[in-house]
Amino acid sequence: MSPIQLYTAGILENFNSCHSAIDSIINQNELPSYDPDQSVPIDSDAQVFIPEITAPVSNNLRQSIFEQCNPLEDNGENGVQLYIRCIQILTIASTVG
Questions:
Q1: Contact between 78 and 2 (Cβ < 8 Å)
Q2: Of 94, 96, 40, 89, which Cα lies nearest the Cα of 67?
Q3: Residues 14, 22: contact at Cβ < 8 Å?
Q4: 47 vs 25: CA distance, rounded Å
Q5: What is the distance between the alpha carbons of residues 18 and 61, in angstroms, rounded to a whole number?
Q6: Which of 5, 29, 37, 82 is the most buried (most CB within 10 A)?
């Protein structure tokens, strides 16, 4: 894990611990509120349309990606090599077939 990930994990694990170190970082009485702005009217008829995206990837190619690109693998590079390998597989597949 990166230093910021370790820091964040530590804060989250000890959030309700009442440790003075955690309390000095996060004062529970001053957590930001994510309530919507009450002064802005909400359009109850508003709709969001998200089109379905279909990836033109065959089941064999998808299986190959899953076998060669383990997203749980920790190589110390935050997934950079994993991303590059997936792009390589897709590039080769697009030129072959």
A1: yes
A2: 89
A3: yes
A4: 39
A5: 50
A6: 82
List, as one string, the DSSP characters of 24-93: HH--GGGPPP----TTSPP-TT-------------HHHHHHHHHH--TT---SSTTHHHHHHHHHHHHHH
Element (H, E) at 6: helix 3-13
**Global pTM value:** 0.41
Distance of CA 63 to the CA centre of its chain: 22
Question: Which of the 8 DSSP states describes residue 17?
Answer: S
Q: Contact, 26 vs 15, CB < 8 A?
A: yes
Query: What does each C-alpha distance from 5 to 8, 11, 29 come to in angstroms?
Result: 5, 10, 24
Residue with tokens 């349309």: 49
